[in-house]
Write a structure and sequence with these properties.
There is one protein chain. α2 (28-47) packs across α3 and α6 crosses α7 (139-157). It contains seven helices and no strands. The longest helix is centred in the middle third of the chain and has 29 residues, at 55-83. It folds into two domains: 11-83, no CATH class; 92-157, Arc Repressor Mutant, subunit A (Orthogonal Bundle). The protein has helices spanning 11-23, 28-47, 55-83, 92-109, 113-123, 128-135, 139-157.
């Protein structure tokens, strides 16, 4: 796959896929990993010259990855029980998620209300057109709010 190949999936498709994975019982961090692995497999298939995998294909692959994780954790638990070893839970993901949430809240609090509201709408999976319609704005206005919010977030990250 050369540099001229474009990415065939939009952010709405990825948000939808992540919601599906979370709905099937995964934590958000696990869902991110599964969505990323699903996309890697889709791009690998597209790089072989095959047709771009459909959304249904992505959902099936993501579901199979969830099942693989469940089976792997089940085997690990059985092995630990057989060996008489206690499986120690790793809470690092939860700690990082909480720290990121605190940081994200502070970044959001620094944004003007309209930019914050538009970002919240995007995070809920709404499209720019949907937001423009609901807020009685033009699409360009919504895009401007998003652009300024991203610029301010980048500035705060420096």
């Amino acid at each position: 796959m050369g540099p001229e190949t474009s990415f065939p999936y939009d952010s709405h498709a990825m948000v939808t896929l992540k919601r599906l994975v979370i709905h099937q019982g995964c934590r958000p961090a696990e869902a991110d990993d599964i969505v990323q692995e699903t996309l890697c497999r889709a791009l690998e298939q597209a790089s072989k010259g095959e047709s771009t995998p459909s959304d249904g294909w992505l959902r099936v692959v993501a579901s199979r990855l969830i099942i693989d994780r469940y089976r792997r954790s089940s085997r690990d638990a059985q092995l630990c029980a057989r060996l008489g070893v206690e499986l120690v839970p790793d809470h690092s993901v939860e700690v990082v998620e909480k720290l990121l949430a605190i940081f994200a809240d502070s970044v959001l609090a620094a944004l003007p209300l309209m930019q914050r509201d538009v970002l919240n709408d995007i995070s809920r999976g709404l499209t720019v057109a949907d937001i423009a319609s609901q807020r009685q704005l033009t699409v360009r206005s919504v895009e401007g709010h998003l652009r300024r919010a991203r610029a301010e977030a980048r500035r705060l990250l420096e």
